[in-house]
Every structure is written in structure tokens, then in C-alpha cells.
Write a structure and sequence with these properties.
By secondary structure, this protein is α/β, with parallel strands linked by helices. 32% of the residues lie in helices and 23% in strands. It has a single domain, classed as Maf protein, CATH 3.90.950.10. It is built from 6 helices and 7 strands; from the N terminus they run E-H-E-H-E-H-H-E-E-E-E-H-H. Helix 1 packs across helix 6.
């Protein structure tokens, strides 16, 4: 069974491939591949107020442009309790939205992390609890077939640690392991992935194999 993922992000693809290898629904092999021709398709607006709204919109949109394929789309990000759930659905564009660090020459991931640290410094006595959240939607020919969600609980570190992963991984601290996501061995990071957890739930719940 082949699922076409509507992303060109190599980190996300790796999460999904790893989860599919380790959680085989109905005993059948699940192949995860990028949606062909994705770069030539104009991207849809991601203006939903929730991860679910954005994931569903993307899955429906891309599946209509690639008839006959099961298309998987995700929306995921970081929710920080002290910031009332920010950056949330704007996680990937957090610094961009605020015009933060444009003159620094830093990458967008670096700017996002620096903005998060700056905002957390304003609330030093607040809980630093946070979570990575992912919602996956599976669609075919414009029809939603399944939706699933996965999350990983953690805290926001005071400063970046580690060089692995991507996004907010250097700041996402896991107390039970005393490491940030960016400090983990790749296999451990993949095992804990919120995207992987969401895909595992989707594979278990979807009955259309």
C-alpha cells in the first residue's frame, strides 16, 4: 500500500517512513513516498485556526490534483503553554510573521528559535511546559478518509542544545531523558516523533486497506 505525502521536507518524510516501517497496519507493507510533481502545484493557503483544519485542507486540495492516489498531509508545530499555545499553527512561520531577525542572516529555524527564547525571557516564572503536536489527514479524490493526531510533551530549554533534528528541536527538552530533541540519537528521535505517533494511529484506525 502506497501513501503519497504532500511535503518536500526531508525531516518530515523520514519521520513518516520510519513510522510506517515499524507499524504495519493489517500486516501489509506501507510505502511512504513524496507526492510526485508537488513543486509544480501552487501551494494552498494555510490559514486555518487549527492543525486539523490545515491538514484536512491540504490533503483534500492535493488529492484533487492527483486523482486516484491516497494523499497524506500534515500540519504540525509547537505549543507553549506560557505563550497561550503559540507559536501553534504558525510554528514554521513564527519569526517571518513577526518580521523578526530579517537582518541577521540566520536561517528561518534559527530565527524562530531566537524569537521563542526572547518571548520566554519575558515570562521567567511561568511554566515552561510545551508539546509538539501533529495532525494527519488522509484523502483521496477530495474525500477525507482518516484523521489522526500525535503529540510529545516536553519543556522549553533556556538555551539551544544539540545539532540534530530541525525546527525547534534544540529548544524542546525532554525531562525524562535530560536531553533536547536535537541531542537524541536519530533512532530515539524518530521513535518519539509526534508525526510518527500520528501516522501509527492513522494506520491502526483506517479501515480502507
Amino acid at each position: 500500500m502506497r501513501l503519497y505525502v504532500a511535503t518536500t521536507n526531508p525531516g518530515k518524510l523520514l519521520d513518516f517512513v520510519h513510522a510506517a516501517r515499524n507499524r504495519q497496519a493489517t500486516g501489509r507493507p506501507i510505502e511512504i513516498v513524496p507526492l510526485p510533481g508537488l513543486a509544480e502545484i501552487p501551494a494552498p493557503a494555510e490559514d486555518g485556526a487549527t492543525f486539523t483544519a490545515n491538514a484536512v485542507a491540504k490533503a483534500v486540495y492535493y488529492s484533487r490534483r492527483k486523482p486516484g492516489r491516497r494523499v497524506l498531509a500534515d500540519d504540525s508545530g509547537l505549543e507553549v503553554d506560557a505563550l497561550n499555545g503559540q507559536p501553534g499553527v504558525r510554528s514554521a512561520r513564527f519569526a517571518e510573521d513577526e518580521g523578526y531577525g530579517l537582518e541577521s542572516g540566520a536561517t528561518l529555524d534559527e530565527r524562530n528559535n531566537k524569537l521563542l527564547m526572547s518571548m520566554m525571557a519575558r515570562v521567567p516564572f511561568a511554566p515552561r511546559s510545551a508539546r509538539y503536536r501533529c495532525v494527519l489527514a488522509l484523502a483521496s479524490d477530495g474525500e477525507v478518509l482518516a484523521i489522526a493526531e500525535g503529540a510529545v510533551e516536553g519543556r522549553i530549554a533556556a538555551a539551544p542544545r544539540g545539532t540534530g533534528g530541525f525546527g525547534y528541536d534544540p529548544l524542546f527538552y525532554l525531562p525524562e531523558l535530560d536531553q533536547t530533541m536535537a541531542e537524541l540519537y536519530p533512532e530515539t528521535r524518530l521513535r518519539l516523533s509526534h508525526r510518527g505517533r500520528a501516522l501509527a494511529k492513522l494506520l491502526q484506525s483506517y479501515g480502507g486497506w
